[in-house]
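User: Reviewer 2 asked us to show a designed sequence for the structure in our supplementary figure. I'm pasting the C-alpha cells here. Could you produce the per-position amino acids so we can include them in the response letter?
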C-alpha cells in the first residue's frame, strides 16, 4: 500500500513539474511592450529680414560739464557772510563764494598807489616847463586818479623823449607794481563764474585759510557729461551729435543724451576709445550711474536672435518638415544677450527657444501645430 501511495505522489510531482516548466517557457516568449516615441514640442519663429540698429552698450557716471574746484592762492581769515558756505548752497553768477580778510594786504596796495601818485606829482613842475605839450594829459591823469578805484592806465607816450623822461623817473615800474598788487588783491575774493551749486565745502567761516588749500567744489547742475570707454573697433562708427538713450540702473527712468565729443586717441592699456555723452535733465545729479545705448550703425537684411540659440561654429537650428537641421550663419554683432545675423533667407523657420539635447535629424512638432490641434478638438 505504501509503494502505491509513493508512486501516485511521484506521478503527481512529475505532472506538476511539467506544467510549471511549460508556464515558465510561455512567459519568456511573450512580446515586449513597444515604448511610444516622444516627440518634443518646440517654439519656432519665421525669419523676416529687416534693418537692425546696432546699439553699443556702455556705462558711466555723470559729471557736471562745468565744474570749478576752489583753491586759495592767498592766506587769511575766512570772513563770514549772510550765505553759509555749505554743500547744497545755490549761488548766482557773480555772487561771492569766498571772502578772505585782506585788510592788511589792502593797506599795502594803497601805499603803493600813493607812491605812484606822488611820483607822478613830483614830475609835474618839470613837465610844465620842459614839456608843456604833454603836461595837460598828465594833469588830467592825476585829477582822475581815485585811490578807492582800480589804478587807471597810464597816458599814451608816442614820443621817445617823453617815454625816456617818464621811464627814467621810475613811474612805469611803479605803475606795474601797483597793477600786480591789485591783481593779487582780487584773489582774496572768489566769485561764482556761473550760476550753480556748491557740492563740497572744506572750509568754514572764521577759519584760517592757507595758500594752496582746497576750499570746495562748485558745479553747474543744468548740464552733465558721461564718459564711456568703448572698443576701438567702434571708432569709425561713433559720430558727434547722434542721440543716445540713457537709463538708470533700475530702468525706471529714460533720458536722451547727445554724443558731444569723441577722443581722437586709443588708450594703449585698454585699447579703448573715450566718448563723452552730454545730457540735460533737472532730475539728474552728479555721480549718478547710467547705462547708455549708442546707435553705432544699421545692418540691413538682418535678424536679431538670442545668443543661446547660436551653436559652435556659427550655426543655428532650423525646422524642415518637423525635423531639426543646422545651417551656417553670418554673425555681424554680439551684445550681452543677443546676436545679429545676416544671410538667412526670408521664410526660414528657426527655433525661438533652445531645446535641450537637440541634434540634427531630431523629430519635433511646432508649438503652433499643437495649439491648432487642441483648438480643433
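Assistant: Here is a per-position design you can include in the supplement:
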Amino acid at each position: 500500500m505504501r509503494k502505491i501511495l509513493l508512486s501516485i505522489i511521484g506521478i503527481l510531482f512529475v505532472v506538476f513539474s511539467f506544467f510549471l516548466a511549460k508556464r515558465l517557457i510561455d512567459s519568456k516568449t511573450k512580446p515586449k511592450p513597444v515604448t511610444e516615441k516622444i516627440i518634443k514640442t518646440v517654439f519656432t519663429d519665421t525669419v523676416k529680414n529687416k534693418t537692425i540698429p546696432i546699439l553699443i552698450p556702455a556705462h558711466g557716471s555723470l559729471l557736471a560739464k562745468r565744474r570749478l574746484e576752489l583753491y586759495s592762492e592767498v592766506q587769511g581769515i575766512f570772513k563770514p557772510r549772510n550765505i553759509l558756505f555749505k554743500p547744497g548752497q545755490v549761488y548766482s553768477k557773480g555772487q561771492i563764494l569766498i571772502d578772505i580778510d585782506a585788510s592788511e594786504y589792502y593797506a599795502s596796495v594803497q601805499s603803493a598807489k600813493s607812491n605812484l601818485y606822488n611820483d607822478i606829482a613830483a614830475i609835474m613842475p618839470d613837465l610844465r616847463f620842459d614839456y608843456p605839450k604833454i603836461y595837460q594829459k598828465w594833469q588830467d591823469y592825476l585829477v582822475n586818479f581815485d585811490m578807492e578805484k582800480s589804478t587807471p592806465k597810464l597816458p599814451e607816450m608816442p614820443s621817445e623823449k617823453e617815454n625816456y623822461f617818464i621811464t627814467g623817473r621810475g613811474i612805469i615800474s611803479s605803475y606795474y607794481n601797483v597793477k600786480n598788487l591789485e591783481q593779487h588783491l582780487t584773489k582774496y575774493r572768489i566769485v561764482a563764474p556761473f550760476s550753480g551749486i556748491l557740492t563740497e565745502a572744506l572750509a568754514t567761516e572764521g577759519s584760517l585759510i592757507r595758500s594752496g588749500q582746497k576750499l570746495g567744489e562748485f558745479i553747474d547742475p543744468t548740464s552733465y557729461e558721461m564718459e564711456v570707454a568703448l572698443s576701438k573697433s567702434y571708432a569709425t562708427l561713433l559720430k558727434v551729435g547722434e542721440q543716445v538713450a540713457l537709463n538708470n540702473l533700475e530702468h525706471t527712468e529714460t533720458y536722451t543724451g547727445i554724443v558731444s565729443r569723441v577722443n581722437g586717441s586709443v588708450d594703449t592699456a585698454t585699447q579703448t576709445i573715450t566718448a563723452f555723452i552730454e545730457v540735460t535733465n533737472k532730475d539728474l545729479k552728479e555721480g549718478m550711474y547710467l547705462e547708455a545705448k549708442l546707435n553705432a550703425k544699421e545692418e540691413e537684411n538682418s535678424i536679431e536672435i538670442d545668443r543661446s540659440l547660436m551653436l559652435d561654429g556659427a550655426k543655428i537650428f532650423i525646422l524642415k518638415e518637423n525635423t531639426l537641421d543646422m545651417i551656417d550663419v553670418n554673425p555681424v554683432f554680439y551684445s550681452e544677450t543677443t546676436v545679429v545675423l545676416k544671410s538667412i533667407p526670408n521664410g526660414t523657420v528657426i527655433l525661438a527657444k533652445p531645446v535641450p539635447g537637440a541634434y540634427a535629424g531630431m523629430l519635433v512638432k511646432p508649438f503652433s501645430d499643437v495649439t491648432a490641434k487642441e483648438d480643433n478638438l
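For the response letter, you might also mention the following. Residues 102 and 186 are 9 Å apart (CA to CA). The chain has four domains: 42-52+300-376, 55-64+222-298, 70-95+192-219, 104-186.
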